[in-house]
Every structure is written in structure tokens, then in C-alpha cells.
Write a structure and sequence with these properties.
This protein is mostly helical. It is built from 7 helices and no strands. α2 crosses α3 and α3 runs antiparallel to α5. The protein is flat, with a radius of gyration of 28 Å. Keywords: Nucleus, Phosphoprotein.
């Protein structure tokens, strides 16, 4: 009987010790993370020196991935706060909440545009690499300028992404400012 109690006590102590070691192993200090980040930066800089083109492509992919992450975080009025505000209705909202909601929608629109431009840039770089031998630099520059003008006009014409309530319509994208911007582009 004594021996059995002793064995169970030792097993219990061993289990607690193992669990404590697992918990300690999981806890990482601030200095650990700093050193790990420094090592990561060193590796990235070494890769940049070895193959700068691949490093740029990887940075572009990381930027795209981060933009997607940010877009899914809090910019779509899907949070509990936003749903509660929307349930209360537009008449019950004060200027501060309207401005906050408009800011969220604006951030979402900017992030979707950023993702779209990254996708367009990658698809256009694929198509331009095929046509790399044809044409001169002037032709490419004029083509890029034309694409930029088209995209800017398209963004100005897209009213569905811009909120129509709150202070947002009175700011930058009013009809007067749109016509001024459109006339300067053309």
C-alpha cells in the first residue's frame, strides 16, 4: 500500500514537472524575439545580395499577403461594434460613429484597390516579359501612363466603393473635385 502511494506520488510529481517544462519552453522573452528578428533580417539581406530580383518578388508577395490579412481584420463592418451600430440605424448615429464607419469603409476600399493593383501589376509584368524584345522604352512609358490614367478614371467613376453618408462625400471626392481631377488627368 505504501509502495503504491509512493509510486503515484512520484508519477504525479513527474507529470507536474513535465507540464512545467512545457510551459516554460513555450514562454519566450523579449530578447529572444529581438534576436530572432535580427537573424531573420540578416537572412533576408543575404538573400537580397544573392538574388535581388527574387527578393523583390518575395517582398511584393509578402506585401500582398499582409494587405489581405489587414483587409480581413476589421475593415468590413463585420465586427460586433459595427453590427450593433448598423442595427441601431442611421438616424441614431452621431457624427463620430458615422465618421468611424466611413473610415472603415474607406480603408476597406483602399486595401481592395491595393490588392487589385498588386494583382494587375503581377499580371502585366507577366505579359510584358513576353513582349520584352519588342518596342522601345518610350512605347512602354506611354503605355504605362495610359494604363495609369485609365485606372485613375476608373477609380473616380466607381461610386459603389465610396460611402454616401456621413462626412465622406463632402471631403475629397465631391463632384466638383472629381471634375477638377478628371480635367487635370485628361
Amino acid at each position: 500500500m505504501k509502495q503504491r502511494d509512493h509510486v503515484t506520488q512520484m508519477r504525479s510529481l513527474l507529470f507536474r514537472h513535465v507540464m512545467k517544462q512545457k510551459r516554460i519552453k513555450m514562454i519566450k522573452s523579449k530578447t529572444y524575439h529581438r534576436l530572432k528578428n535580427k537573424d531573420k533580417l540578416k537572412v533576408e539581406s543575404a538573400e537580397m545580395l544573392m538574388d535581388p530580383e527574387a527578393a523583390k518578388e518575395q517582398a511584393r508577395k509578402q506585401e500582398f499577403k499582409r494587405a489581405e490579412e489587414r483587409m480581413t481584420l476589421k475593415h468590413k463592418n463585420k465586427s460586433k461594434w459595427a453590427r450593433r451600430i448598423l442595427e441601431r440605424g442611421l438616424n441614431a448615429q452621431d457624427e463620430g460613429t458615422r465618421a468611424a464607419m466611413a473610415e472603415q469603409l474607406h480603408r476597406h476600399a483602399l486595401l481592395t484597390r491595393k490588392i487589385d493593383t498588386v494583382k494587375d501589376r503581377s499580371s502585366s509584368s507577366d505579359s510584358s516579359s513576353d513582349d520584352n524584345d519588342e518596342g522601345s522604352n518610350e512605347d512602354r512609358a506611354s503605355e504605362l501612363l495610359g494604363k495609369a490614367k485609365d485606372k485613375t478614371l476608373k477609380v473616380l467613376e466607381d461610386d459603389e466603393e465610396l460611402p454616401n453618408s456621413g462626412l465622406f462625400p463632402f471631403m475629397l471626392f465631391s463632384d466638383i473635385n472629381r471634375t477638377k481631377i478628371r480635367s487635370t488627368i485628361l
